[in-house]
């Protein structure tokens, strides 16, 4: 069952599990989150509902996603994302380095590049061209070999958080594209979309929607501590 985190007359937010694409892909046999959520709502409520997708999470990223429930809500929700008036907060487990301050910012430009070895598209820093990528980071907890980091992207570039951390030698555990620690082995990318905050465009009230850290990420935190004690 997909957990519904927030719902009113205009919006619905739900918890996306890791390992599932946000929307349908060319592989029609692969289950995706948007379709699974619509099927669940259809089974619970019948066919008389509307749901529109406005943003995505990487396949291996877990966490909160928000959808429009009415056609009237589409433009206001799209505008929140377009104008960066909806604040996204992520949690991630990264390699521990001595360079990590209590808080810092990265503001640069990224461009897409095809990695022929990995056969995947990745983002790299560029001195000219590209798109601006701006992220605020905060250190929340220190493990013997890792850090729990809060990341707030102020722009919406692909893999923005992942590449900003990897460039500082602080790759996210489980990352299979960017440089990341390999031991202990993470069950998946340890990146979680923890919260969304915005001023509701219809009620004008402040809204914060949180998605709790999933079990696999919480268990990996315990693994990090146990692993260090037994090395």
Explain how this protein is built.
The protein is of the alpha+beta class. The protein has a single domain (4-227), classed as Pseudouridine synthase, CATH 3.30.2350. 20% of the residues lie in helices and 35% in strands. It has 4 helices and 11 strands, in the order ββαββαβββββαββα. The protein has helices at residues 33-45, 71-82, 160-166, 215-229, and strands at 4-7, 11-16, 52-53, 62-68, 87-95, 103-115, 120-125, 131-142, 146-153, 191-199, 206-210. Strands 1, 2, 3, 4, 5, 6, 7, 8, 9, 10 and 11 form an 11-stranded mixed β-sheet that branches. The N and C termini lie far apart (39 Å). This is Ribosomal large subunit pseudouridine synthase C. Belongs to the pseudouridine synthase RluA family. Residues 13-166 form the Pseudouridine synthase RsuA/RluA-like domain. InterPro entries: PsdUridine_synth_cat_dom_sf (IPR020103), PsdUridine_synth_RsuA/RluA (IPR006145), RluA_PseudoU_synthase (IPR050188).
Write the layout of secondary structure elements.
Elements: E1 4-7, E2 11-16, H1 33-45, E3 52-53, E4 62-68, H2 71-82, E5 87-95, E6 103-115, E7 120-125, E8 131-142, E9 146-153, H3 160-166, E10 191-199, E11 206-210, H4 215-229
Parallel strand pairs: 4-10
Antiparallel strand pairs: 1-2, 2-4, 3-4, 5-9, 5-10, 6-7, 6-8, 8-9, 10-11
Kindly list the characteristics that best describe this protein:
11 strands; alpha+beta; 11-stranded mixed β-sheet; Pseudouridine synthase; 231 residues
């Amino acid at each position: 069952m997909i957990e519904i985190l927030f719902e009113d007359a205009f919006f619905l937010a739900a918890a996306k599990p890791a390992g599932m694409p946000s929307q349908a892909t060319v592989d029609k046999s692969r289950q995706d989150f948007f379709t699974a959520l619509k099927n669940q709502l259809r089974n619970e409520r019948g066919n008389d509902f509307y749901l529109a997708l406005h943003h995505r999470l990487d396949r291996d990223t877990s966490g909160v996603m928000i959808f429009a429930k009415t056609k009237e809500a589409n433009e206001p929700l799209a505008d929140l994302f377009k104008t960066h008036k909806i604040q996204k907060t992520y949690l991630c487990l990264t390699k521990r380095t001595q360079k990590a301050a209590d808080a810092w910012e990265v503001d640069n430009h990224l461009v897409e590049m095809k990695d022929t070895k990995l056969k995947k598209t990745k983002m790299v820093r560029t001195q000219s061209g590209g798109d601006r990528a701006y992220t605020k980071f905060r250190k929340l907890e220190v493990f013997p070999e890792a850090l729990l980091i809060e990341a707030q992207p102020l722009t919406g570039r692909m893999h923005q958080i992942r590449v900003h951390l990897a460039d500082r030698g602080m790759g996210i555990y489980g990352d299979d594209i960017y440089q990341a620690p390999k031991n202990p082995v993470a069950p998946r990318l340890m990146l979680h979309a923890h919260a969304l905050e915005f001023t509701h465009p219809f009620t004008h009230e402040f809204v914060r929607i949180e998605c709790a850290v999933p079990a696999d990420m919480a268990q990996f935190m315990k693994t990090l501590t146990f692993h260090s004690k037994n090395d």
